[in-house]
Design goal:
Elements: H1 10-26, E1 31-36, H2 42-50, E2 54-57, H3 63-76, E3 100-104, H4 114-125, E4 131-136, E5 138-139, H5 147-159, E6 166-167, H6 168-174, E7 178-186, E8 190-197
Parallel strand pairs: 1-2, 1-3, 3-4, 5-6
Antiparallel strand pairs: 4-8, 7-8
Helix pairs in contact: 1-2
């Protein structure tokens, strides 16, 4: 038995470099990147290591996830990753300013109300010109982009009927304070939607 709180998500190893490539294209060379729903912390660690000019602020509402994030960061010894914040997008945010915001694989594993809360929170903390990046599976024009995404959506809704793959057009409709900068195709039939704060 181990007391190591670090968690591991196999999908992180598969998608982290593709997400990093998108970050390199859309982030400034320096500034504070707020990551929402950081989960295991492996993404935050990878991005902090690869982008030394960026300070990464991970967050998660789950105490076990925050312990994992902080343990990964402590083991790596990186100076540009902050201790994880307790942040639930539907509540009060314990941060009032960031230069970019990244959220991977949250909005389909949460009730719908988390999505407008996320977008509204991003509008509050991001200054004009700052990017909001959302990564995960999405419907396009009301349709799944692959049979595997349809099966995934069905499995999510079986676990919790409030969950499910969201229609990207509905997410874009929430983002009145943002312009859509890019919709980038990603591995495993995922997308990264890049918004820019007006």
């Amino acid at each position: 038995m181990t007391d190591d709180p670090r968690r591991h998500a196999p999908a992180t190893q598969r998608n982290r470099d593709a997400i990093l490539a998108v970050l390199r294209r859309h982030l400034l060379a320096s500034g504070l990147l707020l990551e929402i729903a950081s989960g295991t912390g492996e993404h935050a660690l990878h991005f902090a290591a690869a982008l030394p000019g960026i300070t990464v602020q991970p967050s998660d509402p789950d105490a076990g996830a925050r312990a994992s994030i902080d343990a990964h960061a402590g083991a790596a010894g990186l100076a540009n990753i902050r201790p994880a914040l307790a942040l639930d997008v539907t509540g009060a945010w314990p941060i009032d300013r960031a230069d970019a915001l990244l959220c991977c694989n949250m909005i389909h594993i949460a009730p719908w109300e988390a999505t407008p809360a996320l977008v509204a929170g991003a509008a509050r903390v991001l200054p004009p010109g700052a990017p909001l990046l959302l990564y995960g599976p999405f419907l396009r024009d009301g349709r799944h982009t692959a049979p595997s995404n349809a099966a995934f959506d069905e499995s999510l809704r079986a676990r919790d009927p409030r969950w499910g793959v969201r229609d990207l057009d509905e997410v874009i409709a929430l983002a009145a304070d943002f312009d859509v900068e890019a919709i980038e195709a990603m591995p495993a039939n995922n997308l990264t939607a890049v918004f820019r704060r007006r």
